[in-house]
C-alpha cells in the first residue's frame, strides 16, 4: 500500500477507536482500587499523597515528582514505564477509566478536610459553618464564587436528576414550611457531606427517610 494510504488508514482507525491509539495510562480524574494501589506505592516511597482511590491533582503532582526522580517522562500519567517502576509489576493489559470531572473530585477532597468542624448558624469559615456557608467556602477554595444562601445556590448550576448525581454536585432539601432550607455536597454512593446542626461537618445518607421525604433537587456547578 502507498505510504500516504497507510497513514490515512491509520488516522481513520484512530478516529474510530481512540482508546486503541492512545497509550494506556492511569490519569487525572480516574478512580478505583488500581488508583489506591498507585497511591499506596507513592506514599510508601515517601511522596505526599492520600490513599483515597481518587487520582486528583495531589496524586498527579506526586506522580510527576516520582517520574522526575526516576528520570521518566514527567507527564503525570501512570503509563507502562511509570507503573512498572512504581509497582514493580507489569501494567494491566486493560486500563479502565472510572472517572468523573477532576474539578468535582477536588471539591469533594476539600470538603472532606473539614469533617468534624462544628455547626455555627451563619458560619462561613473553618471556625464553624452553616450548610450554605460550608458549600460557599469549599467552592471558593477552587476559585468558584457561589451565592450565600441555599435557595439561591440552587440556581448556581444546571439541574441534574437524582439518578444522574456525580460527586461534587450540590443536593438540596426543603423544610416543612420553606422551599429550600438545606444544601450539601454529594460525595458518591448515595452519601453527601454537609453542615449538620447536630454533628457539624459530617456525612449523611440520601436514602435516610428524612432526606428522602425532603429532597428538593440538585445542581451541577462544574461540568
Structural write-up:
- By secondary structure, the chain is of the alpha+beta class.
- It is 37% helix and 17% strand.
- It is built from nine helices and ten strands.
- Strands 5-10-6-7-8-9 form a six-stranded antiparallel β-sheet. Strands 1-2 form a two-stranded antiparallel ribbon.
- It is elongated, with a radius of gyration of 21 Å.
What is the straight-line distance between the termini? Answer: 44 Å
> How many strands?
10
Supply Rg.
21 Å
Helical stretch count?
Answer: 9
Q: Low-confidence runs (pLDDT<50, min 5 residues)? A: 1-23
Q: How would you sum up the global shape?
A: elongated
What level of helicity do the residues show?
25-40%
Produce the secondary structure layout.
Elements: H1 3-16, H2 18-21, E1 30-31, H3 33-44, H4 57-69, H5 80-87, E2 98-99, H6 102-112, E3 124-125, E4 128-129, H7 131-140, H8 150-153, E5 158-159, E6 170-173, E7 182-188, E8 191-196, E9 200-205, H9 209-214, E10 215-220
Antiparallel strand pairs: 1-2, 3-4, 5-10, 6-7, 6-10, 7-8, 8-9
What is the compact description of this entry?
With 223 residues, the protein is an alpha+beta fold.
Keywords:
223 residues; 6-stranded antiparallel β-sheet; 9 helices; 10 strands; disordered N terminus
Amino acid at each position: 500500500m502507498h505510504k500516504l494510504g497507510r497513514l490515512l488508514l491509520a488516522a481513520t482507525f484512530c478516529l474510530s477507536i481512540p482508546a486503541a491509539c492512545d497509550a494506556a495510562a492511569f490519569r487525572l480524574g480516574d478512580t478505583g482500587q488500581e488508583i489506591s494501589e498507585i497511591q499506596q506505592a507513592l506514599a510508601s516511597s515517601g511522596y505526599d499523597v492520600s490513599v483515597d482511590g481518587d487520582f486528583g491533582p495531589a496524586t498527579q503532582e506526586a506522580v510527576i515528582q516520582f517520574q522526575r526522580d526516576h528520570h521518566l517522562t514527567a507527564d503525570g500519567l501512570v503509563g507502562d514505564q511509570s507503573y512498572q517502576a512504581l509497582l514493580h509489576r507489569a501494567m494491566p493489559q486493560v486500563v479502565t477509566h472510572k472517572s468523573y470531572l477532576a474539578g468535582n473530585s477536588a471539591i469533594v477532597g476539600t470538603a472532606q478536610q473539614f469533617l468534624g468542624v462544628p455547626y455555627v448558624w451563619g458560619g462561613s469559615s473553618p471556625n464553624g459553618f452553616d450548610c450554605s456557608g460550608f458549600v460557599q467556602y469549599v467552592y471558593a477554595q477552587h476559585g468558584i464564587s457561589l451565592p450565600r444562601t441555599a435557595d439561591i445556590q440552587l440556581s448556581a448550576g444546571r439541574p441534574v436528576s437524582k439518578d444522574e448525581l456525580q460527586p461534587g454536585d450540590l443536593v438540596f432539601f426543603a423544610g416543612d414550611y420553606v422551599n429550600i432550607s438545606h444544601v450539601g455536597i454529594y460525595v458518591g454512593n448515595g452519601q453527601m457531606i454537609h453542615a449538620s446542626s447536630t454533628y457539624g461537618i459530617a456525612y449523611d445518607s440520601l436514602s435516610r427517610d428524612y432526606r428522602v421525604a425532603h429532597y428538593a433537587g440538585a445542581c451541577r456547578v462544574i461540568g
